[in-house]
Amino acid sequence: MARERRGFRHRTRVAVLGAGNWGTTFAKILADGGADVMLWARRSELAAEIQHEHRNSAYLPGVDLPHSLRATSRLDLALAGAEHVFVSVPSQALRENLIAAAPHLGSRATVVSLMKGVEKSTGLRMSEVISDVLRLPPEQIAVISGPNLALEIAKEQPTAAVVSSQSLETAQAVARIATNRYFRSFVNTDVVGTEFGGVLKNLIAVAIGIVDGVGYGENTKASIITRGLVEMTDFAVASGAQAETLSGLAGLGDLIATCQSPLSRNNTAGRLLGQGYRLADVVKQMQQTTEGLASVGPVLELAAARGVEMPIVEQVRQVLAGELEPKDIAPHLTTDPDDDPKGERNTHGQAQGGGALRRTFQRALDQLRDGGRRAPGDRP
Ligand SMILES: NC(=O)C1=CN([C@@H]2O[C@H](COP(=O)(O)OP(=O)(O)OC[C@H]3O[C@@H](n4cnc5c(N)ncnc54)[C@H](O)[C@@H]3O)[C@@H](O)[C@H]2O)C=CC1
Ligand SMILES: O=C(CO)COP(=O)(O)O
């Protein structure tokens, strides 16, 4: 935490690894919040542009970066003395980057994932990969997620996010430095829910892009978003998350932002698929990280292992594999509304989950009736 001492202002030393859209934007958030930030870019030309011209023209055109933000392509310099290390590389490259960073990492540094994917080869969440490679105790690991389209934040449009760590103190310490006049970090201790919120909303955003590309309208999209949130919640709860987290910033909040915005790469990739492009062409066209395309397989494997049905995510897989026409994607709505007035059943008459979500809303209603303060979940 930045603190005053006899006129000397201590600025927390932090490193950000990965100078793409989100890494650069997050480095700006931290620098504007008063931290002493060193951003690591793989390419020396990019590091030089950020350091000397205060720009990252490839990823954030038109955005002026703070002059206090320094950049380097040397990992050892980026990590020297860093108390907190924020990581924003593509999920599939996290492990190799952590292995390279490990020798330069201070033994007490907190490592914070900014990423929204799962490792394809292991099915591990990003915080699990961090734990696996670096052998850090849970209180030195945190994750950040929320409705955070990078370019909007780089333009200083007000936004909120959640910092999550098993240790509330760690989450609060990270939230303090990751807060400034346009960015507010809330905290929770539900790492599983916070991470899976970010992973799963990408898949629903791909589905929304697909139906948008086909030309379907708002009813289809609203149905997919609503049923998608049920799938996200059931999957996350079966994985050990708290349902409340999925109705907070890292779940519903991010789902709304990503499904609505043309800035979303997942949404854009889906739209191209819906317009009839084949997956290989879409991948070629997407110059930036599109996590949802890599997460579909591992998420469905985990869902099968946990006995969770994910009809929308399964249809996304089928479209990606060329097994389903984009126009045939459907939100699997109730076929007989009288059959199940409270829940929603699929075409086979099976309950489509939603129990956890319903319980959350019920608890929130009960709290309101009791004169309670507010639903649990993201806290200031
Ligand atoms: N862009 C956004 O609005 C947000 C992105 N995220 C997450 O942040 C993570 C990174 O995404 P973006 O910054 O948007 O992606 P990006 O594609 O803009 O940037 C990725 C960066 O990683 C670098 N990179 C690529 N392969 C690498 C490797 N093997 N080793 C090291 N660096 C490598 C690229 O050169 C680039 O600088 C993703 O998990 C994404 O889901 C989270 C919130 C918002
Ligand atoms: O995570 C994001 C917004 O919160 C960014 O979404 P995309 O990765 O789809 O661009």
UniProtKB/TrEMBL annotation:
Compartment(s) of residence: Cytoplasm
Assigned keywords, A-Z: Cytoplasm, Lipid biosynthesis, Lipid metabolism, NAD, NADP, Nucleotide-binding, Oxidoreductase, Phospholipid biosynthesis, Phospholipid metabolism
UniProt-listed Enzyme Commission number(s): 1.1.1.94
A biological process term (GO) from this entry: phospholipid biosynthetic process
Primary localisation category: cytoplasm
Associated pathway: Membrane lipid metabolism; glycerophospholipid metabolism
PANTHER family given in the database record: GLYCEROL-3-PHOSPHATE DEHYDROGENASE, GLYCEROL-3-PHOSPHATE DEHYDROGENASE [NAD(+)] 2, CHLOROPLASTIC
NCBIfam families membership: PRK00094.1-2, PRK00094.1-4
Protein family membership: Belongs to the NAD-dependent glycerol-3-phosphate dehydrogenase family.
Protein name, per record: Glycerol-3-phosphate dehydrogenase [NAD(P)+]
Organism this protein belongs to: Agromyces rhizosphaerae
Highest classification ranks of the organism: Bacteria, Bacillati, Actinomycetota, Actinomycetes, Micrococcales
